[in-house]
Batch of 3 targets.
Target 1
Amino acid sequence: MNVCFLFIFVVFRLTSCFAKRVELNWSVEYVYGARDGSNYRRSIGVNGATPIPAVHVMQGDTLVLNVHNKLDVATSLHPHGIYNNGTNYFDGPDMVTECGIPPGESFTYEINTAAQSGTFWIHGHTRHADVDGLRTPFIIHSNKPPVDYDEELLITLEDWFSQEFYARMEYIDNRKIDGTFPPNYAGGLFNGYNANHTAPIKFRPGKRYRLRVISMAANNWSVFRISGHKMTVIEADGVRSMPLEVDGLNLGPGQRNSVIVTALNSTDFNYAFKFISTSSTLNNESGEKPKIYQGVVEYREGAPIKDISDQSDKKPVWPDDMTLQAADKQPWLPVDRIIDLPITRYSDSFRVGFWSLGKTLYQPTIVPTLYTAMSMGKLASNESVYAPQTNAYVLRHLEVIEFVISNPFINDHTFHMHGHDFQVTEAGPYGELVHGYTEIDYRKSGPWPIRRDTVQVRAFEYVRLRFRADNPGVWRFHCHIAPGHDYNGLAVILIEAPELLQKQQRIPDQMKEMCKKQGIPTAGNAAGNPGFDLTGLPPAITLTPSYH
């Protein structure tokens, strides 16, 4: 027997022996409380709890989530950052890979972790339930950690509105064309609660800590730093990176980093950590944007907090996707096809609010897109069967795609790709700069670009991404800012190798039954018809591009 094959076989057998099924029973239900410390409101939790306890598994385990929906609307779950290779139907986005779990019904998701380890999260992907609390960390522990450390700490950074998502969207949908927002700014949550009243982070002198930091925010950027301490980045979105020393983290919605922090050698002082929550989509207002929170890194209970100013002549160093390099040293992928994805904002005579990425703005159709891809035979490779509203792009198996995302507006975005991570290879200035904004520098990755599944695209910036279409399925690529962006069409659908998808996967019968219970067809083109007949499909929204 070939020695190399024997080694791989033995490793596989050992992994199989130690891997297990981690089974959790989740009752998704409404809960009431004031997580921000002031606004008592209805939110969404699990088994009566909010925040939802983090999920921990070992690499190779299968996470089995038995979900019962006690809400009065459909729900679904998305394992953010997980490939779901061979199980596209477990990916979660409603009307893309499923119809959602109807009220009062149950469904089981199975998430295989053999191919990944790192820092992920699970969140609702129907009716933006994540914004109202259906979100929690999902940690896949490696059997061999990337670096040595003494202890691991989990940090979640969230934004929290005083209103439920759809109540707030009624206000946003009706804002005036001058961009005025209602007086409803998100508060910041640190590890699930008001960031000014959180428990201290406890350090012991000389110990090395791995901090897994997750932005589960829906709208706001999160800055996190510890006074008097450096951080060394070792992971971005589940991908190991070469060590990079930084002063702090600046995470957009959906992004994650692991950092190593070495504790100081004295217990004479405690130190402050700072969490800043801010957003380009909200107006500047004293005390509201940005919101600044402070907590304690505790070396000794009762020790004074050492006063260290953030101000210095030296510019703080933040992680940048062009300076982060992948630890596995995968070189730049050779490009087979370039797809331009310009961001466009639309307005009508009353408001500004709709967005598109590439060809048009995304709208859900009558049939979930995966079901169209699975039922249309050879026509599944023709983008027309998915209708213009899905903003679909058909990808050939194993071709290397380069996305060029260009943003000529004052709004920042993060874009998340389901089913993949991607190389972030280049970024630079784009569009006509507005007064008060600093021009973006041109940056290019080094020889081993970092891969991640969620990327920042800042105001007046373009970004280039590369990935190999090696995961047959129907995958969403969308802005992860829920209020106003993803909600209003800033997404595309990737139809990847549909001919292989039809041969390799089978949608569980229970998923089709959940569709039928909601009156949703499970076969045919986007309108549920044969061929290219889109009769019955609501017309695509057509608006005038806005450039202010």
Target 2
Amino acid sequence: MHSQEALEAGRALVPTLVRQLRTLATTEAAPEHSVRGINDPFMQIALMRVMRTVARGSQAAADELNDVLALVATLDDAASNVGTAMLYECAVTALAIPSDAPLRVLAINLLGKFLANPDNNARYVALATLSTAVITEAPSVQRHRDTVLQCMSDDDISIRRRALDLSFALINAQNAKHIITEILRVLPRADLEFRSSMVYRLSAAITLFADSHEWHVERMLRVLSLGGNYLNARDLFKFIRLVAADADEALQRRATRISFALLERDISQDKMVVAGAWLIGEYADLLVARSQRASDAEAVAPKSPGLDEDDLDILGALGRPIQESKPEGSPEAGGAPGAIGLDEELPEAIPEPAAVVRLLSAIARSSSVSASARQIALTALAKVAGRFADQPAVVTSIRTTLGQFSHSMDQEVQSRAVEFDKLLSRELDGVRAAVVERMPVPEYAEIPYEEYVLNPTAMRMKALTIIKRPAMDPADLIGASAGGDAKAAAAAAAEASKQSVVSDLLNLMDEAPPAATSSPPPQQQSKMDSIADLLSSTSLSPIPTSQAVTSPRTMHAITSNDDLDREYEVFNSNGLKILLTPSKRPSAPQVLDIQAKFVNAGESAISELAFLVAVPKSQKIQIHPPSGQHISAGASVEQLLRVSNPGKSAVRLRMKVAFVTDGEKHESMFDYGGFPASVF
């Protein structure tokens, strides 16, 4: 690590280094120093690396570099390896210092051009750098989204990996549907080592950016059908709970019919089998029932023909049914059997009860599915028997199937088969209906996704400074008392000003609160201890699942609280007004949803909006992406915050907002603790 004295000495040499670089870039190269017509590229690269080191965190030094970096970027081209190396160093330097916005855009465009370079190394370093730059330069990187998505199908595995990471990092509310669809296209042929991460991040993206329950369910069913073997238990449970708790009856019917149709095609995806069997067992009456629009539904979703016993034997042995041959050129031709094109509607089946029994029996007999899937299939058979108790032939068929498993070598399977067969006997007619009725909505303490779930590169960042930030006041540093050593405080402030963008977020709650605050003062302790104890964590760790769900009476109180679902003004300065609207969901009473609304109350547009929030260490916060970073006059954008507050303590927010209006950048840090106690 460089000492502060050496760093200051290096910054004093910046004008000399700039002159040297300008001379090398503009003068004709001597033959002994020329490489492909570029004058001593090794020296130019060395100079840029030195200037990148000394100018990081220094606005004055960065201002000296803006012009010469733009000159180097325009004089060189990527026609040769040496030109590519020069442009790459120029782009990295521009992004690593608080350079002007036009220069940063130029740097992103240079890296975007590298993505079309036939050289694998150039494409790789461009993707790696863009994955880092996207944290603060997302609008510029978004211009190259289509090229990045094409790189997911590159022949080089390293480029595919980087392209996948960057594609996920580019997802926002505006492009989520398009990018998720493109990633789903890649999933079936993705490298095995990528699939677990892809499925996990796809589930996170779908959950974070779903604009309707219908789209959420449909996309998750596609994920299950294409990568169900890689879905984790938490995301599987969240999907099942979504259908059970949030979906209406029409969506439950559609999800169950789609699941049945997908399982008829393929039972090789284990989590798809688990979810489908569970849905069929719970909603078998919706699966086979004809609604008032049955004729319309049958025109769109053909009635399932069912499977005969020979087909079921093959289904159980191979993990998928026999597929009819597809005509050459059809969307499914040449793909995996049963694959559904992403441009096609998911199939829906309206089977007869006998077909439902045959499918569940085939799953229970299949050796290609997991033991838990077979157990759920047996449970589903018992539930189906309860749904169609008025059809003796169906119940008899189910009891015959259960009898086949009464001597299973799997103890759990054998136990379920015997118990369910007993449940379907005549002597238990009085209790059967209550046992097999639909399950209540599963209790679930929501676990938010990690802060950087869609961009793991952000977690690996150490010191990337891209945006301009003024040096902190020494009085804002924890432990810097008013009567302390001014020189030491100034040095600490200078060091703190070099913290990265990511560090600003992670350490936001480690700064002392500003003078004007809405939150109550801390208890009488030492200044250091009180702040460290109260406001020392912004961790986005999962909410403990052991938190109990409130009673129905409490849930009713939550939904009828007059202090919820109303706007609280927390900031109004320089034309920007921030309104917070707290709300709660009965399914997650310990989580406070806060909708932040940014209103442009001025006459000029607001751009580069950045909003950071932190909470006391007894609480956890999840920050969703904003709906936009540019606000026209009179318009507004929104951003969702979720605060886990299992202790029902007062919610105190420390907020930092930065934005640009009329070419001037404004930054403010402030506290708010004005929510009424009834909100908690």
Target 3
Amino acid sequence: MAVNSSSNPTLMASLAKLPVPDLHDTVARFAEAARPLFSADEFETCLAKLNDFVATQGPTLQARLHQRSAEHANWLEDWWNEYAYFLNRSSVCFNVNYFFGFRDTPQPMAQARLAAALIDSAVRFRSQLESDSLELDNIRGKPMCMYQYQYMFATCRHPGEQRDWTEVYPRSESTHIAVAHKGRYFVLRVPAASTNRHADIAQIERQLQIIIDTTAQLERGKSIGVLTAALRDDWYTARECLLQVSSDNAASLRVLESSAFLVSLESVAPVTHKEFSLACHCSDGTDRYFDKNFQILVFANGRYGFNGEHSLTDATTDMRLCNVLVHDVETVAAEAQVASAGDVAEGAPATFEELHFDYNDELLGHIQRAIEYFDATVAAHELSTLVFDSFGKEQIKKMKVSPDAFVQMAMQLAYYRQFRHVPATYESASTKAFARGRTETSRSVSAHSAAWCKAMVDHPETTGLHAKAELLRQSIANQSQFTAQCAKGSGIDRHLLGLEFALQEGEERHALFEDQVFTGSRHWKLSTSQISDPILAAYGWGEVVDDGFGVAYRIENNALHFNVVSQRMGSARLCQYLADALMDMRFLLTNAHKQPHEIMAEVDAVANVLTSIKLLSSSSSQPTTPTETPAPQPESRFRGPFAETPVAHAMVDGLDRLPSNEVICALEARLSRFVKESLSWALPSTS
């Protein structure tokens, strides 16, 4: 079955149109969401403008939205693409594109073979897509819109003088693959997929291996790819210059941009979580073309990832392709089968050729400025990762709360502890249940979440555990309810954007649209999104405002993963506060029924554990005479009556394997932190 409106009208007709929310409901919910972010005076000023807007200009703009909805498949689509992407003059590399890093293959694969398997898989997926043989997307049996899939292959974003645009290339011009290696670009032409997958992969692998073995490093000062990471105004000027240098440049650029997709054969070999995330996010900018619809990244050590251009497709759409890529690669790796001499692919063999570019002084100047911008931007950013493996979705569900909303509240508490104010927070919610639907903003901040953060941080002595736990549970419930409303097409931010776009040229803008609360509440200091797929080992993007964070997270059964990016705002520190918040929230929800003296008794028990360990360590360090017979040691140094409380169990679990002095240091540090920091909010009150 086809995946776009032109070839699958039945699917599109079965999907409801994105509704236009009720004006009064949107205004009331906006006021409720914005109130905790500002002072009482600021909010009251905005509230007066909101009420005036509803009484004057609002109904006229609302009527225009209803008229637009009647005339378009999706009243929001074009406006959202303009506002969020094509009018955005920021760097797509740092502020728009998203990246995935995939889990390791079950068996190591050489770079060329891995890249060949990925190319073969993507080509086969495209054939399925174009032959209408893909199963439809659905969530629990409910069909999801697949309109975005028509932009998945053979598209490229172009910088414009004032706005960008995306070109979709016909199949006849886009059967080739672009390959980037050592700063150079190649065009790889592959035959149609045959029934002998291993033979197809083998012949692609041979061509890629030649590229790897014979390509000389191009000096970075001649890199075309780094231009695509520049600010869009700068890239527009540089691209115009590039095209004017020679007709060969125009031809090479056309071939590069019209490719089905791009594969980057990277020279770096990322190992740590942070290295892998940075490499997938931006690397050094040379073996990339950030305007391409997607780039498959294959690193020298056999790790691989994905970088997606966001203007017309969302990460959730690309995950369908990515799951196929990973499944196919892991199948090939597990089979460990190499094509024999008798395995010959059908049709013409795969071939490649290098794309050449000419330079003049002006173009070289543009490239140098792009490199300086790229390096300065990388240096100005801080990317940190957190692998939190103390618990995950399974334990959160046992607390009878939503795992996603639980994590959202952890981010609220972590940010509040670091900055002492409530941040405007964006969580992406999908509206793909509607025709041509994309996303809506789920606002995480509520009056309850703000009150809970303040109760945990500012005045912990004024509320007991039960009261704090109730505030947290209500905050989580509010977030879950808001997200559910967004998925039903009843969000507030896209509606407010539509009302603003409904203004006609020359028409007076209502004072509401310039109000500091109205604009400031959309200054997303926390831009967040979750994709929890087992194929991922990394996932992220950049911040959307200069003084904010981009926080991508994954929720696994027994772990939580975070990728935090900011312009040196304290990404690593926020990760630490996140870990603290998660532990505190679990403690709060599982111990809310206890009185402070009960918790203190357990803390005292932990102190007894520490005392016992010190005594045991001291006695075991005393020298023995030849006539002395050492007393038999217990099975564990830390098992016995002194360690039978729940907190004591938690504190000593896993420490048996460490030498005594390391145990003492570790336990002392954890005990000190546990009492002085982690439980400071829990102990003072007796209410």
